[in-house]
Every structure is written in structure tokens, then in C-alpha cells.
């Protein structure tokens, strides 16, 4: 065999080896490098309390714009095979079962601790969240699961908590794949301002390869109550003075139906236009049970879709 033939065989061997390496490692790398498809951003934050009473199938008719669902739990919602189920590890309790839960749900994406900075939510201190993330969630990232950050509220301490968390896990070789943010308020402009200002405080917002996206996993138009007195609030180690407080879902003074529906229509259109917003879920696909605004709910008292629910599904 002449030298040219030997060189040709060597080149073929190298190409085959490179192809084998690509086949082995690309499935692990792609979930962290590629954003979610921009054409299927709209989802449902479906309460587990709906189970047995209301089912999500009215949101899933042919042509529906809704493509995914989460339920603040690692266990799938029944009868949603047409939607991409995203498990959530709500807090650190029971986290050792997470790998088995993800496998049972056949899930490739994970949402983490829910509003950990708030005492009445998952209430997970930063250092505990870092410890459990690195112990239980980061190994799943290394195996190819796409892991979202803990989902923070729009309270001032939310972004402070998340910045500290990301800094600490990065210092120990960990990371998040996207950021999960929540917002409740009155005006659509306030919502937009909050999204931009929060996102640009977080590492990885810069354009280019490795840019991190955002999932807005809770948002709605609620109501603001301006109180004529000053209140001292303790946020992240500092006492601050506030001359207004937010009272969400005020049953005595709800925002008007027109206001909420206009907010929803304009905001989802805007979120669809933002390249760095990967997914979003309006709060909420439920009846008026005291935890959702009168006109922000997408199910009526009989469990049927409201006008807002139909528009969110179809428009």
C-alpha cells in the first residue's frame, strides 16, 4: 500500500473518531447552548389544587398557543400529554428524590426553588440553596438537564438573593441555564421596566454565545394600594422607607376587566417579541379562589374558560 493510501486511511480514522466524540458529547452540551424554541413560549402555571376539579384540556385544543405546563411540583399533572411538563423542586425538602422524579416525568428541564427569598414561600436561605443546588441539581445539569434558577419575586430582595446565589454557585463550578422571574403589579410599563432592570443586573445577560434567557413563570395585572403613611421595611439587611405598598388581588378594589385583558394582550405580545424571553406563564389558569385576581383568572366559577382564558389560548 502506498503512502498516499495510508494517509487517506489515517484521515478517515480521525474523522470517524471525531464523529464518535461529537455523538457522545453533543447531547450533553446542546441543552445548555441552545435556547428554547421561540415559537412556543406560552405556558400554564397549573395549581395541583385543580386536580380532580378542573383539567387543563380546554387549553389544549388544536391550534392552541399553549405549549408547556408546570405545577410547582415534580409530579406531572394528569392528562397533559400534549403539553411539555416542566417539574419544579419547590424547596429543598425531598430533593434527594429529584433524579427519580425527573426520570419518571421524562423531563429534560427543571425549575427550582419558588420565591426562596420570601418567608411565606419556599424560604430557602442563600447558603442552603447553594449547598443543595451543588449537591443535587448541578449533577443533573452535568448530565444534560436544563436547569432554571430559583424563581424570584419582584420584591426588592429578590434580585439581591439571586445575584448572591449565582455568584456563589459559579465560584464552585456551578451555574444556571436560564433565569426564572415573577412579577405582579398594575401597569404594563412597570412590568417591562422590571424585566429589563432585573435581567441586566444578572450575569449572563450580555448578547452573544452563552447568553442566558428568562422564563417569566408568574405574572399578572393586580392592583396597587397607596397608603398615606410611611412604613419601614427590612430588605436584605437594610431598613428602607416606603410610602406605598402593593396589595395584590384586592377583592374590594380589583382592576377592571378591560385593564387586565388589555395588560394581558399587550404583555404577551411584548414577551413574544423579546429574544431573551424564552417562556412565560400568566397567573393564573384557575377559578377565583382568593389567590388570583378577579379578572386575571382564566377559569370561571364553573371551571370553563373566561374571555381572558380563551384569548390566552388562541390569540
TrEMBL record:
Coiled-coil spans in chain: none
A GO CC annotation given for this chain: fungal-type cell wall
Domain of life: Eukaryota
Signal peptide residues on this chain, from the entry's feature table: none
Domain Asl1-like glycosyl hydrolase catalytic, chain residue ranges per copy: 44-312
Spans through the membrane: 12-34, 221-242
Keyword terms, alphabetized: Membrane, Transmembrane, Transmembrane helix
GO annotation, biological process: fungal-type cell wall polysaccharide metabolic process
Pfam family, one: Glyco_hydro_cc
PANTHER family assigned to the protein according to its UniProt record, in alphabetical order: ALKALI-SENSITIVE LINKAGE PROTEIN 1 (PTHR34154:SF3)
Protein name (database record): Asl1-like glycosyl hydrolase catalytic domain-containing protein
